[in-house]
Amino acid sequence: MGELKTQGFHHVTLVSADAARTLEFYRGTLGLGLVKKTVNFDDPGAYHLYFGDAVGSPGTILTFFEWGSAPHGAPGVGGVHHLAMGVDTEEALLKWKRRLTDRGVQVNGPFDRTWFTSLYFTDPDGQILEIATRGPGYALDEPAEALGTRIIQPAAARLLGHRDEEAIRLRTWPEPVPEIAPDMALTGIHHVSGITDDVERAHDFYTEALGLSIVKRTFNQDAPTMPHWFWARYDGERVASHSSMTLFGIPRGKPSRGGVGQTHHVAFRARDDEEQLAWREHLLSLGAQVSPVMERTYFRSIYFRAPDGLLLEIATDGPGFLVDEDPAELGTNLRLPAWLETERDDIEAGLAPLA
User: Fold this and answer.
1) Counting beta carbons within 10 angstroms of the beta carbon of residue 256, is it exposed (0 to 12), middle (13 to 18) or buried (19 or more)?
2) Neighbours of 290 (CB within 10 A)
3) How far is CA 173 from CA 62, 91, 97, 144, 194, in A?
4) CA angle 94, 98, 101 (to 5 degrees)
């Protein structure tokens, strides 16, 4: 097998306190499809919900563990600061701002982040979310064949303390948006932004361990002395969608605290079982502690940690979410793996019904 380079994200898993509330927000407010209703295979008394596109394609999947008794977590070193979902145009972004605001969600932005424009808000558990536009893209200020080769200083007008915050606050779509228009459809994971205590060490890890390439070295527009580096699947000509991992560098920062309102882990893709085993051997050769392969019915998984503590996974693309349901039935029934079917009555009795 040739040099290992992940195709990008498979899914991101978060922790919620209330599955029904999560379903209402992510399906009802954000319009994501519920592609699987199951339980946490390691904790079958808790729901595990999967959202994504019509068939749960890798790179579009957000999943949630319902752990209502868990404490609230907090972002920090070794955790995810925010998760960004994509939308095509800035016009659609403004429609999202109006829709979310009218539904009582506090929204910040839109902010010009140079390579995309973004809105920020939180879900009902406090997880920071972003909706980011597709363009103008990372080649705006560097040649497409030489991304990440120099340090980019953000324009002063985009920095906190210099931008016109009132004008940003007032900018929105002029009319109510009660329904999600086709142009507003969220296109999957745009990027994931975490926090690390050493961006140089993180660079070595993400390039060596996962085959990602540096595509941008810049600074946080909201904290201009803080490094903000971007990695992605990049072939020297284009950056693949659903593959951008970004990190804020905070030396001596507080460690993240897992729990409700935080990301549990970030999963990258392996094409198949053979490639996943190659990834496992590769990670072990780098000194990482890697779990055995775990059967998740819809994919197989291995788990390990980045040097700053972030829990990562490599998941196979297949067999996918159609293995036990037809497309029209996805997410409609509680699905259990074969080894839990004998406990179905007890499991269902312990779960609150979901619409």
Assistant:
1) buried
2) 18
3) 27, 8, 7, 33, 30
4) 130
Please report where in the chains the tokens 């536009």 appear, as a residue: 133
59 DSSP 8-state letter: T
Instruction: List the chain residues with pLDDT less than 70.
Output: 1-2
Could you write out the DSSP letters of every residue in 168-182? HHH---SS---S--G
Q: From residue 85, give the alpha-carbon distance in Å to each of 31, 68, 134, 186, 189.
A: 12, 25, 10, 6, 5
Taking alpha carbons only, the member of 147, 160, 307, 266 closest to residue 218 is 147
Closest to 170 measured CA to CA, from 101, 247, 254, 69: 101
Q: What is the pLDDT of residue 1?
A: 61
Residues 41 and 47: their CA atoms lie apart, in Å, by: 9
The predicted pLDDT at position 241 comes to: 97
The model carries a pTM of 0.97
Cβ neighbours of 303 (radius 10 Å) = 17
- The pLDDT value given to residue 355: 77
Looking at residue 72, the DSSP 8-state letter turns out to be: B
Q: What is the DSSP letter of 153?
A: P
Contact 14, 349 (CB under 8 A): no
Grouping H, G, I as helix, E, B as strand and the rest as coil, residue 55 is coil
**Interatomic CA distance for residues 45 and 350, integer angstroms:** 7
DSSP structural state of residue 339? G
How many CB atoms sit inside 10 A of residue 344's CB? Answer: 12
Residue 3 is predicted with a pLDDT of 84
CA 62, CA 327: separation in Å to the nearest integer? 18
Q: Please check whether residue 222 is in contact with residue 87, taking contact to mean a CB–CB distance below 8 angstroms.
A: no
Q: What is the pLDDT of residue 100?
A: 98
d(CA 53, CA 59): 9
Q: From residue 172, give the alpha-carbon distance in Å to each of 30, 100, 161, 175, 184.
A: 17, 11, 21, 9, 14
